Each structure stands twice: as structure tokens, then as C-alpha cells.
Amino acid sequence: MDIKAHIRGIPDFPRQGILFYDISTLLAHAEAWHATVAQLTETLRPYKPDLLVGIESRGFLISAPLAYCLGCGFIMVRKKGKLPGSIIPHTYDLEYGTDTIEIQADAVKPGQRIVVVDDLLATGGTLAAAIRLVRLVGGEVAAAACIIELAFLNGRDRLDVPFSSVVSYDS
């Protein structure tokens, strides 16, 4: 199945000059969504994760069904101020400024095998930050995965774990 055919590009969103890759149309197409989850499940199974970490917010949509299919747990990395209880923050650099992501302090037990999942890899900043955050709380990051990779932005170069995507755009 051609998964790319179910991802729509929306020009000039969220601002002028950006082409936004919208997975809403993929999620709405049962057969394409099932094929995407099945492909990611088989790609990630060899890493034998104890937990999948989903990055807010579209990473949650992917991680939860994948965790179910893989028979492992699912936890969230969220933007600052969105998680209850004791949290561990990590601030990282963006092209113009900084951002902070957080994880619950007790979400990962030391030594657990983790795969970090998001919907899209662009420059790699958020995914690399999530990997660092998981390591800060004692997790062993085995791999990372996304549905979409914008290969022309070279984001995978910022990752120090195996990375997989379902589709890749070269321009």
C-alpha cells in the first residue's frame, strides 16, 4: 500500500512557506492506518521494548496502538506544565529559542528498553531531546521511529540510535 497517498500536504501551515504533512487523512483511512501500524510494529519488534515513549501530541496517536500491538507499555513526553505529579524537565535549543519537554519522574524504571516515537522527523531537535530526557531518567533507548521523515532536513544525523520511518520525503 502507498502510505504517502494517504498523507496530505497543506501549504503555508502553520506559517507562510511551510508545507505541513497532515496525518489526519492517514488516520481516517482504516486500511492505510492499519498498514502503517502493522509496518511499524514489525520494524520495532526486534528492539524488544519494555515501553514506547510518545512525544506530544501526534506521537501519542502512534505510540498507543503500537504499544498494544507490541505488548508493551506506553508513556508520554509532554510540553512543559502538562503532566501531573513529580516531573523531570529537559530544555533544548530550537532554531530561534528554546523549548522544554517533561516526563513523569517515575515513568521509566532504570534499565528499561525504550523506543521513542513521533509522527514526523524534521530537523531532529525534539526527537533528540526526548531521547536525552529518557536517558536522564534511566531508560535505555534502543531505537526511534516516525511515520514521516523529511530526509532533506537531515534530522536523523542528530540521533544516536537506530531510526526508522514509514515514508520519507526528499524535498
Radius of gyration: 15 Å
Q: What is the CATH class?
A: Alpha Beta
Q: Could you state the oligomeric state of the chains shown?
A: single chain
Number of strands: 9
CATH architecture: 3-Layer(aba) Sandwich
Find the structural class using helix and strand composition. alpha/beta
Strand proportion, as a percent range, falls in: 35-45%
CATH topology: Rossmann fold
SS summary, helix count: 4
Q: Give the integer mean of the pLDDT values.
A: 96
Helix content: 25-40%
Main β sheet profile: 7 strands, mixed
Query: Which regions have little confidence, pLDDT < 50, spanning 5+ residues?
Result: none
Strand order of the largest sheet: 5-6-4-3-7-8-9
Which key features would you list for this structure?
Rossmann fold; two-stranded antiparallel ribbon; 7-stranded mixed beta sheet; globular; about 170 residues; alpha/beta; 4 helices
Written overview of the protein:
There is one protein chain. With 171 residues, the protein is of the alpha/beta class. The chain has a single domain, classed as Rossmann fold. The chain has four helices and nine strands; from the N terminus they run E-E-H-H-E-H-E-E-E-E-H-E-E. The strands form two sheets. The protein has a seven-stranded mixed β-sheet with strand order 5-6-4-3-7-8-9, sandwiched between helices. The chain has a two-stranded antiparallel ribbon with strand order 1-2. Strand 5 and strand 6 form a beta hairpin. Helix 2 crosses helix 3. The two termini are 22 Å apart. The mean pLDDT is 96.
